[in-house]
Amino acid sequence: MVWRQQLERLLEVGQLNNVTLQVMPTNADAHPGLDGRIELLKFPDGTAVGRSDGLFNGRPVSDPKQLRILELQYGTIRAQALPPRESLAFIEKLLGET
Questions:
Q1: 64, HSE (Cβ side, Cα atoms, 13 Å)
Q2: pTM score, two decimals?
């Protein structure tokens, strides 16, 4: 029941205009997301900070070169994940199987 509720919540959130939901298939090639989460925060004043479990010893970084590395890794993850519509369809399929 908990699994079903989680899938329903993902579908609900995935319909929001300010949310892009993408699912990484379990059979995907190796990707930067396997090292843990990547966080990037960009602020209105143009500054940014980021961190990754797998890079820079997990410490926050603000150096533009290090931030660019995080952005590239994030882009790689998004490129390998299912597109948003396919991701929602995949979740709906899982929900139908539970």
A1: 2
A2: 0.76
